[in-house]
Amino acid sequence: MSWFRKIVDFFTPKMEGEAEVAKAKKLLKEAEVLDAAIEDATIELEPITKAAGKVEKIVPVKPKRARTKKGRYKADDKSTPDFNEAWEGGKAPKKKTKKKK
User: Which of 93, 41, 42 lies closest to 65, judged by CA?
Assistant: First the structure.
């Protein structure tokens, strides 16, 4: 490349639009390929019907205190107000109210 051509290329603005058009065309081709692949991979599911006569009972779980490796009770971490580390499962049982006489 001659020195004159280098100077001319330096001062002439480059066509950035052509590169953007090429990128857009490439993205459109990829989108068409993806659309076809998505249609091929799509399956239709049948609606789920209830099991015939099977009813499962929900067994209430009694809360259990969390313990350390040594077997001692764990304390609650006050920095996490939405989770109680002192109880397994993260929820403390509700306190029973005393009967009024």
Answer: 93
**Whether the Cβ atoms of residue 75 and residue 86 lie closer than 8 Å to each other:** yes
Percent of the chain whose predicted confidence (pLDDT) is above 90: 6
- Whole-model pTM over 0.70: no
**What confidence tens digit (pLDDT) does each residue in 1-44 have?**
788 888 888 888 776 667 777 888 888 888 888 888 888 888 88
Compute the Cα dihedral for 19, 20, 25, 30 and give only its sign.
positive
Q: Are 66 and 85 in contact (CB under 8 A)?
A: yes
How far apart are alpha carbons 21 and 29 in whole angstroms?
A: 12
Q: Measured between alpha carbons, how far is 11 from 56 in angstroms, rounded to an integer?
A: 80
Give the type of residue at 60. P
Q: What is the DSSP code string of 48-100? A: PPPPSS--PPPPPPPP-B-B-TTSPBPPP-TT-TT--TTBTTS-PPPPPPPPP
- Residues paired with 32 in a beta bridge: none
